[in-house]
Amino acid sequence: MPAPNPIRSAGTLLHARPDGRSWDATAPNGWPLIAHLPGKSTPPFSCSEGDRVILEFTAYDFSMARIAGPAPTQGSI
User: Fold this and answer.
1) What is the pLDDT of residues 17-65, one digit of tens each?
2) Does any domain span residue 77?
3) Residue 55 belongs to a domain with what CATH number?
4) How far apart are CA 10 and CA 26, in angstroms?
5) What angle do CA 47, 50, 51 make, to 5 degrees?
6) Is the backbone of residue 15 left (phi > 0), alpha (psi -120 to 50) or beta?
7) Is residue 2 part of a domain?
């Protein structure tokens, strides 16, 4: 069950981890973290190295995050 009020931020995926569902990623401030895809089924979007994504953190652990979806592009705002 997702946290009731997750902290959301953009991040960049670096490379996939061996389990195939999680990624090494960086937060906008350069902090390294592990980002995982939601759920156990096929994700609704595809991820590849270098993609910018929206990350959801809990208030307790900033070393892991859930990938909430692709980040909007710079020109779409």
Assistant:
1) 998 889 999 998 899 999 998 877 666 678 889 999 999 998 888 899 9
2) no
3) 2.40.50.140
4) 9
5) 45
6) beta
7) no
